[in-house]
Amino acid sequence: MLRRGRSPLLALCVALGVNGNALAQEQPSDDTLARPRPVAASRPPAAAPPSARTLPPPSSTEAPPPLIWKWRTFSAMDYVVAGTGGAVTLATAIVHPRPQHSFPRPLGFDKDVRKLLRGGSLGERYDFRDASDVGVSLALAWPLLGDALTTAWWYRGSRETAQEMALIDLQAMAITGAVQGMTNVLVSRERPLGRDCGGALPSDALDCRDAFRYRSFFSGHSANGFTAAALVCIHHFENDLLGAPGDALSCVGAYAVAATTATFRVVADVHYASDVLLGAAVGSLVGYGVPLIHYAQHRADRRARPASSARDVEISLVPSPGGIGLFGVF
After folding, report:
1. How many CB atoms lie within 10 A of CB 259?
2. pTM of structure
3. Residue among 131, 107, 134 nearest 119 (CA)
4. CATH number belonging to domain 107-300
5. Per-residue pLDDT of the chain (330 residues; tens, 9 = 90+)
């Protein structure tokens, strides 16, 4: 009986002993707690495959920065001057030259140059006259359509610059047309071809009528062509429309068109050499003078300055963890 009664108690003690050893093994000792644990060495991140790396952007030609108009804009007085010039040009094209004719004979070298350059046949002279009309049309369209509309607005992205350039062009052309038209009507010089009226040309031909025959001095084609050439040069160099060498080539090209057009007027026998030379001088004077007056007057507002120099000191209040802070841009 006693042996059978001790068995449960002995079993319980054995069970408790086993559980106590297991718990002792699970709990770390003081030495284990005090001993530092080894830290696994951190591995460097694996290098990204070549396809995942950030590659430098491919080299490309960047578009030029937009133009900024740095000069004063077209004023009300400018509109009045341009409008008056246009009205005078139209009026002098309608009014007939005065009946008293000046310079009845060729001046100086006019006779020799005419003999050297004059077209050999009537048909040839008409061909050169048509070519001169094409030349002056190209010359007048260049500063308006080529430089203002295409280069300044479309290529350089500045509508304001294109507008101001076009207004300056129209003002200069109107002044040239007014000066040339008034001189034409008042001087009333006979064209070289007038000497052929009644001979190689029928007396009732359109070229022999007073409205055309006595408009030799000075050449409108030459004056307008050189006005346009001067406008092309001054706009390109003041605004750096294309940069080097594009601006210089544009200037040279415009003068080549103007000079060719003026020469064709002599070959066509509608002007003397003195007519085209004076026209070139007047056209260059107006073509440079009018835009230089505008470019001499800079704008006062900040929008006229380039972005690199228009930045001022800006200070503003911004929230911060401890209250309010100051944020400045210099």
Report:
1. 17
2. 0.73
3. 131
4. 1.20.144
5. 444 444 443 333 334 344 444 434 444 444 444 454 554 445 555 555 544 445 444 433 566 788 999 999 999 999 999 999 999 999 999 999 999 998 888 888 999 999 999 999 999 999 999 999 999 999 999 999 999 999 999 999 999 999 999 999 999 999 999 999 999 999 999 999 998 998 888 888 999 999 999 999 999 999 999 999 999 999 999 999 999 999 999 999 999 999 999 999 999 999 999 999 999 999 999 999 999 999 999 876 544 444 344 344 455 555 666 665 655 554
